[in-house]
Design brief:
- Helix content is 43%, strand content 15%.
- By secondary structure, the chain is of the alpha/beta class.
- It has an 8-stranded parallel barrel, surrounded by 5 helices.
- The structure holds ligand G3I.
């Protein structure tokens, strides 16, 4: 009976992929997905279809991830670039890949103020504009009905610094429909796909600064009020974008916040975890250690809380991160914010996540 390592080597051989010794050495029976599953959790990551053309990356992805989310290919700017013309090809490719590798797929994101098609803003000024929201959600969530684990229905709707009493971000959606756009979106998503968990996804609740205190308070008020109106939100998505050399997570404040979320009966996803390291020293060992420490500090809190069901990183390997500034490129400083390096080798962040997932 082949063990997982030998099976992967055989698969690679069959696929004509020559695994460098460093990769062979790194293959252990357990990926993050196995470690997470032993605690009834899911680990996954964001991916894009162009990454799936790299056979060596696919081996690492299949070993480590139990769930995928489209980094950008299931956003409206890609799906409905031309009004009324829906292109699901990328999402379907990611869904097929996930299913063939025993993974689940998350949807991201039905309603956001970024990455919208160029025609949308003008179209919103028409009298029957609400159908631009409801018909899109019905079409897209309907297309993937029954196949997705969850949807980020509304993404990043909170911004206390915008100065509204309700703490909402003053987006094109809010300007056109008022706060009701959120209720409309979640009810439309629930009607289109009753099987998917519906998630509210945002950043800003993780750190311990006063702005984050305000963000956490606004998020609790928003979720409490929405649930009180019967808005079908099942979970909060904490994006988990951290900074290794910036403000850090306040573990007590975060734990207390998660208690409040849990008390509402909501689940928690960590949806886009990565640790920005651009402000650190050139020394890779120091940067990797600081990234790992930040990740562990955060995950120790969220993973030891009964509400958390899944952790996804915003990519798996540093290889596919958008290139840094020209200055950083010239001095040879490239981002190291994800569990695997550019050669798909496990980094201290991988070890920190493995320990947090298994502790
Ligand atoms: O590389 C393709 C190119 O081949 C293609 O022709 C072109 C067509 O638009 O797209 C190129 O891809 C770009 C992609 O980044 C490259 O990674 C997309 O244009 C560009 O929109 C995309 O930006 C994404 C951004 O959201 C907007 O969609 C980033 O990848 C993605 O990391 C970022 O993710 C957001 C989350 O959705 C929400 N939370 C914050 C997070 C980080 O900004």
């Amino acid at each position: 009976m082949l063990n997982r390592r030998d099976l992967l080597v055989q698969m690679a051989g069959t696929a004509g992929v020559v695994l460098r010794p460093s990769i062979l050495g790194d293959i252990t029976p357990d990926g993050l997905r196995d470690i997470a599953a032993r605690r009834g959790l899911v680990y996954g990551c964001a991916a894009s279809t162009f990454e799936l053309r790299d056979a060596e990356f696919v081996l690492a992805l299949a070993r480590e991830a139990g769930m995928l989310v489209a980094e950008y290919e299931m956003k409206r700017g890609i799906i409905e670039e031309t009004r009324g013309v829906y292109d699901f090809s990328a999402g379907d490719t990611l869904l097929a890949f996930a299913r063939s590798h025993r993974m689940t797929l998350r949807g991201h994101a039905l309603v956001w103020h970024h990455k919208n098609p160029s025609w949308l803003e003008d179209a919103l000024s028409s009298p029957r504009a609400e159908t631009l929201l409801t018909e899109y959600i019905a079409k897209v969530a309907g297309h993937f009905k029954g196949w997705l684990h969850s949807w980020d229905v509304v993404n990043e709707a909170i911004a206390p610094l915008d100065g509204r009493p309700d703490g909402l971000r003053n987006t094109l959606w809010l300007k056109r429909f008022g706060p009701e756009y959120i209720d409309i979106a979640y009810h439309a998503a629930r009607a289109a796909d009753p099987t998917a968990l519906l998630v509210y996804n945002d950043w800003g609740c993780e750190m311990g600064a006063p702005d984050n205190d305000r963000f956490r308070a606004a998020t609790l008020d928003f979720l409490e009020a929405a649930r009180g109106r019967g808005v079908p939100i099942d979970a909060l998505g904490l994006q988990g974008h951290l900074a290794a050399f910036g403000p850090q997570v306040d573990q007590k404040k975060l734990a207390h916040f998660l208690d409040s979320i849990h008390a509402m009966g909501l689940k928690v996803f960590i949806t886009e975890h990565d640790v920005y390291d651009a402000d650190g020293p050139m020394d890779i060992i120091l940067r990797d250690r600081a990234v790992a420490d930040s990740s562990r500090r955060f995950l120790d809190v969220v993973l030891n809380h009964g509400a958390t069901i899944a952790v996804l990183t915003w990519g798996l390997s540093d290889r596919f991160i958008d290139p840094p500034s020209l200055r950083d490129q010239l001095i040879g400083r490239f981002p190291r914010q994800l569990p695997l390096d550019t050669s798909y080798r496990r980094k201290p962040m991988w070890n920190a996540m493995a320990r947090a997932l298994s502790s």
